[in-house]
Amino acid sequence: MKRFAGWTQASPATLLVVVFLVLPVLATIVTTFTTPGGPFATYAAFFGSGFRRAVLFRTIQVSLAVTVIALVIGFLTAYVVSRAPGWLKSILIIAAVFPLLTGVVVRSFAWLIILGKNGILNSTLISLGLITEPFQMLYTQGAVIVAMVYLFVPLMILTLVGVLESIPDDLIQASSSLGAKPSATFMQVTLPLAVPGLIVGAVLVFTGSFTSYATPQLLGGEQVMMMGTLMYQQAMVTFDWVAASTIAAVMVVITIAIVAAMNAMARRLNPMTA
Amino acid sequence: MTRNIHPLLIAGTALVFMFLVGPLIIVLGAALSDTTYLTFPPQGLSLRWFENIFAIDAFRRTILTSLQIALLSTTIALIIGIPAAYALNRHRIQLPGWLSTLFILPVLVPELVLGFSLLKNVAVQFNSPIYLSLLFGHALIVLPYVVRVISASLASFDFSIEEAAISLGSPPLKTFFTVLLPNVRSGVIAAFILAFITSINDVSISIFLTGPGLSTLPIQLLAHMEQFFDPTVASVSVLLMILTVAVMAVVERTLGLTFLAK
């Protein structure tokens, strides 16, 4: 009996994940191969449509832009935070956790107020005399990218602070006592040791952007359709569940492929294990 | 330590934190405005948009639904997640390696895909109540938090205490409640509160599992924003931010906020 104790305790959670996640998601993917047109008909239709290809391409483009910007901002900020004195570090961590725990709707809504036609940015620019007519900032790719960077920078900062703090201080001190300038220490010691963390952060941000819904819906609208908003539209507006399932399958495959590829890369690039 | 950092980098960091906090201050200001449209800085201070939240039936209803779903899904996740985390720590050799991967699947599989699959293959396929799918969908997405936080608490638990209790004749269930659970209490509280806020804020699962008669607060906020541009949404956002502050206070007292940076 004792041999199965672990299984007994883990079985309710296992059952929930299998019954309500693994099976339904597999069923969604399987149905895309069993349509009357043949096993790959829905994929031919997806990649054959110029509009859907454009949505996929745009989603990749936006997610890459968000990932790169968040990586740069997040890493430099995390570097400063990790070297800050104790009290300041606590304040900065609080300032990063607060937006992280605030919902995506609230955080996207903030950018709706800022970027709107009569929003804060437009009215500020007008009152400064820099522009005469309000800019169209909402429903552009730029608006979606800015709001998503806002969404993911806290996550990146917190992930990377954790990584940077785990780098032994001895290594930094050894480098500088051997005569390396701070910039050389940063480039040759800190950065390489942070690579696995940067990869983890990049995966989180890329997959998060790639599969997001609320932000592109609010700030991109119909004009900046992304995979998530397209999937919702197909499923709940045009009720084309086969097309929605196809988008779902493409999302799952791309997400899992990226996680797997980045995991493999993180293992190869980790200077501690190489 | 800071002396080694280039002043430009410090200035950049200051800008980043203004970028992080600024938009939320703007939401707070917009919520307090006495105007019928969204504006910042607020013109005239008033709390009338907070009263308006509760005057709108849809908000009253969805706030209650969201609280109910968050409470129930978190409870389910704790009831099944605590034993799972225990098993992963105590009986690791018995269990296959993929089991811990299985428990993080809900964060790996895109939430939209999960929400849509629950709608299509559970709610519609088996003609089951949509509420059930919504509830289990939320329980699924909070399960990884529960397993992770409880596992972290158990990592510092000395299992020989438990063995001592059992060898002195304490029955297993009693041991669980009187020895193990009190020792991971702060982990349980933190797991509960993190799971709760995750459920309250969820959009991607709920968007497919709501409809006429059943909606959650974030979905109602999205719907309201598409029709109105008044400060009501800002006021609800402020209420949610107050909840965030409460959550942070609890996390700080139990795990410490730096746990979130691990």
UniProtKB/TrEMBL annotation, chain A:
SUPFAM superfamilies: MetI-like. CDD domains: TM_PBP2. It is found in: Cell membrane. GO terms for cellular component: plasma membrane. GO terms for biological process: transmembrane transport. It is a multi-pass membrane protein. Residues 56-260 form the ABC transmembrane type-1 domain. Keywords: Cell membrane, Membrane, Transmembrane, Transmembrane helix, Transport. It holds the Pfam family BPD_transp_1. The chain crosses the membrane at residues 62-81, 87-116, 137-164, 184-206, 241-262. Belongs to the binding-protein-dependent transport system permease family. CysTW subfamily. This is ABC transporter permease.
